[in-house]
Design a protein that fits this description.
Number of strands: 7
Number of helices: 6
Shape: elongated
Order of helices and strands: HHHHHEEEEEEHE
Largest sheet: 3 strands, antiparallel
Distance between the termini: 49 Å
Strand order of the largest sheet: 6-3-7
Structural class: mainly alpha
Strand content: 5-15%
Radius of gyration: 23 Å
Length: 220
């Protein structure tokens, strides 16, 4: 599928969702196609000799950003619509079965977990029933610290990722204008003069070599 065709398809789908206000049918492979496209364009970006200095690199960043943002907005709109359907179901309102059948399998699982979580919460709070939240992972409970409202999850926290397993980063000071670019970590960086940011070391080295950034070496 051509890039322009995919982006146009995504944008039209988003527009239809926003206008209709209802959950619509989407192809099961839509998200897969979008991810494949993004990965392909990332590869194209890194295959360029000097992606930061070429117009082609900038265009690739724009394409990747456009598809990523549109897919994220599609996900957000559909999630809000599914939440509305879940509340309608819990309030005993009419739920259009045709609309419910338009959910992807992952969305259906989310929908059912939301309904289960709402029902458990209502039983516990409204009816005073002792319902063990999170028994099946559908409504994992969390205690809130009374001092600052920070959620404190039950159970043993996951061990920290060893430093050796993390990608090396460098702290740099941006000294001159630079176009948006994609880092080695897959993130898109939009930087301004005067910013002090953490970048993947490889990207930081390139910027420093071109006198765009200054590496800030902190004492350990």
């Amino acid at each position: 599928m051509m890039a322009a065709d995919l982006l146009e398809k995504l944008r039209q789908m988003l527009l239809d969702m926003q206008h209709s206000g209802r959950l619509s049918h989407i192809e099961p492979g839509l998200y897969d196609d979008a991810r494949a496209y993004i990965e392909k364009r990332k590869t194209d970006y890194y295959d360029l000799k000097n992606p930061l200095e070429t117009r082609a690199g900038g265009l690739l960043i724009e394409e990747i950003g456009s598809v990523t943002e549109t897919v994220q907005e599609i996900f957000s709109v559909r999630t809000r619509q599914i939440l509305d359907l879940a509340f309608q179901q819990m309030e005993g309102q009419y739920v259009n079965k045709d609309e419910a059948r338009k959910m992807l399998p992952e969305e259906r699982a989310m929908y059912e977990r939301i309904i289960s979580a709402i029902e458990e919460c209502r039983e516990a709070l409204v009816h005073g029933e002792a319902v063990p939240f999170g028994g099946d992972g559908a409504a994992a409970g969390a205690r809130f610290d009374e001092a600052d409202g920070t959620p404190e999850p039950h159970g043993t926290p996951a061990p920290p990722v060893p430093r050796s397993a993390r990608s090396p980063y460098a702290l740099v000071h941006i000294r001159s204008e630079v176009e948006s670019f994609m880092g080695m970590d897959g993130r898109t960086y939009v930087l301004n003069v005067g910013d002090i940011v953490t970048l993947p070391e490889n990207n930081a080295d390139v910027l420093c070599e071109h006198d765009i950034a200054l590496n800030i070496r902190l004492n350990k």
